[in-house]
Amino acid sequence: xxxxxxxxxxxxxxxxxxxxxxxxxxxxxxxxxxxxxxxxxxxxxxxxxxxxxxxxxxxxxxxxxxxxxxxxxxxxxxxxxxxxxxxxxxxxxxxxxxxxxxxxxxxxxxxxxxxxxxxxxxxxxxxxxxxxxxxxxxxxxxxxxxxxxxxxxxxxxxxxxxxxxxxxxxxxxxxxxxxxxxxxxxxxxxxxxxxxxxxxxxxxxxxxxxxxxxxxxxxxxxxxxxxxxxxxxxxxxxxxxxxxxxxxxxxxxxxxxxxxxxxxxxxxxxxxxxxxx
Length: 277
Fold this sequence. Notes:
- The protein has helices spanning 6-23, 25-28, 64-100, 102-116, 120-129, 135-161, 165-172, 177-213, 225-232, 244-271.
- By secondary structure, it is mostly helical.
- The chain has one domain: MetI-like fold.
- Helix 5 (120-129) runs antiparallel to helix 6.
- 38% of the residues are buried.
């Protein structure tokens, strides 16, 4: 930590700030989530004639800052849980396929190829159009669809590790599949998985925001950043910037998480070598 580069430090501070706001949203937000406190699309603080509200108001007079804070809570929570689901599912299945091999590997890999051949957004829209769009359903659908990408990475890394001497030694000792996966493969596969973790989290943020913008994501009375863009997109015609605020928040979060992921990847790559037998 004493040698952390400036870019990673900025990323850590920005990412930590987003998560802090998401966790303590109920105490930080100055107004309620759906509380109407002013006129429609009042100007933010940087306008020539600003309103009393820092980011102004939205399309029906609600405080945009409060909506953004509550939206951060929903967006980050859904993206985090979906990322956890995708990594737990994809990593375990990918490692299992690499260790087991044979027809198990072939069947699992071909099924993953089948799902990856269908665009994730289209498949998600089809599934969500016939299912209730609750947060639980969103998390499961996003996590399972994204687990195919994690599966491919985990399997590719595990295939290279399973031919190492220390894995062969574990097999000769009579260790089972679970031991080999969690004690031999996983510790040596963390570096690429950590880098992919940041990318998958950002993809989940963009995914849930896209679904909400299309009307099949987070549903009212909850709010998320994609939904806030949808609610205020008409204001762009009149020069109102309410729809741009969540877009900027998504961009800043994406950049900050990527800066942290790059730093963690460099650290784990330089510190971690293959395990000996």
